[in-house]
């Protein structure tokens, strides 16, 4: 991320935004801390993204195809991301990696379908202990559909399927989860205040170097 954008003082800011070419290196728009650095509004962003897509026809043709689920590396991280993105979470679980791959293959076409792409956050695990924050998970379930709490520290299982579930069963469950999902209406300031009051604090995997962010966190901690 430091090769993409540095904030004030030449250090990594706590947010980074850029659109990169398929090689993951070439910058296609002005980098910054948010899309506002490159675009004046959402409409302009959408227009420019469509123009950029034309330059990469192969990527456009393969937009909804992939050989793997778009999943995060850990269940707890995926739970947090799902809460931040206000999206339901899908977790697959099995006793071995081979069995897990088979379950994930059942979800693959659904995850990349035009109807469901981008609608869920995904994670997989071979450790049932990773399901501890998920209330209602059964020991025999292979696919769990979860509503995260507001802070991404726990989640409620709203549907679960075993490894023998049919494509029709899976598609029905995913469609219902999307239909029934009620995103949280969050106020940024109130969300931060409540999190501090409850003693919730996120420790980043990357050491924080953004001076303004560090100072803001210290000020928030100092408040009664």
Walk me through what this model shows:
The structure is a single chain. The chain is of the alpha/beta class and 224 residues long. It folds into three domains: 8-61, no CATH class; 71-180, Glutaredoxin; 188-222, no CATH class. Helices cover 36% and strands 12% of the residues. The chain has helices spanning 42-54, 57-61, 75-85, 97-111, 167-180, 188-197, 211-222; strands at 71-72, 89-93, 121-125, 134-135, 143-148, 155-161. Strands 1-3-2-5-6-4 form a six-stranded mixed sheet. Strand 2, helix 4 (97-111) and strand 3 (121-125) form a beta-alpha-beta unit. The longest helix is centred in the middle third of the chain and has 15 residues, at 97-111. The two termini are 35 Å apart.
Q: What would CATH call the homologous superfamily of the largest domain?
A: Glutaredoxin
Question: How many domain regions?
Answer: 3
* Assembly category: single chain
Termini, distance in Å? Answer: 35 Å
Which strand-content bin applies to the residues? 5-15%
Give the number of helices.
7
Q: What radius of gyration results from the CA coordinates?
A: 20 Å
Q: What characterizes the major β-sheet?
A: 6 strands, mixed
- Which structural class fits the helix and strand makeup? alpha/beta
Instruction: Based on the coordinates given, report the CATH architecture of the largest domain.
Output: 3-Layer(aba) Sandwich
Mean pLDDT over the full residue set: 88
CATH fold annotation of the largest domain: Glutaredoxin
The number of distinct β-strands equals: 6
Helix content: 25-40%
Q: Show unreliable segments.
A: none
Adjacency order of strands in the biggest sheet: 1-3-2-5-6-4
Overall body shape: globular
């Amino acid at each position: 991320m430091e090769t993409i954008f540095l904030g004030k003082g030449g250090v990594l800011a706590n947010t980074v935004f850029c659109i990169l070419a398929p090689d993951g290196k070439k910058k296609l728009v002005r980098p910054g801390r948010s899309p506002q650095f490159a675009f004046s509004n959402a409409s302009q962003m959408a227009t420019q993204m469509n123009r950029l897509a034309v330059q990469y026809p192969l990527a456009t043709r393969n937009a909804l195809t992939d050989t793997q689920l778009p999943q995060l590396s850990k269940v707890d991280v995926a739970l947090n991301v799902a809460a931040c993105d206000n999206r339901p979470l899908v977790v697959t679980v099995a006793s071995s990696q081979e069995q897990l791959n088979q379950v994930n293959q059942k979800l693959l076409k659904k995850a990349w379908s035009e109807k469901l792409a981008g609608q869920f956050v995904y994670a997989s695990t071979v450790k049932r202990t990773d399901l501890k924050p998920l209330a209602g998970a059964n020991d025999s379930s292979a696919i769990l559909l979860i509503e995260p709490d507001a802070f991404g520290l726990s989640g409620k299982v709203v549907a679960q399927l075993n490894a023998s579930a049919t494509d029709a069963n899976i598609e029905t469950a995913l469609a219902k989860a999307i239909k029934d999902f009620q995103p949280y209406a969050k106020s940024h300031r109130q969300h931060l205040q409540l999190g501090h009051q409850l003693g919730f604090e996120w420790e980043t995997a990357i050491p924080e170097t953004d001076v303004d962010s560090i100072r803001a966190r210290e000020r928030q901690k100092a408040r009664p």
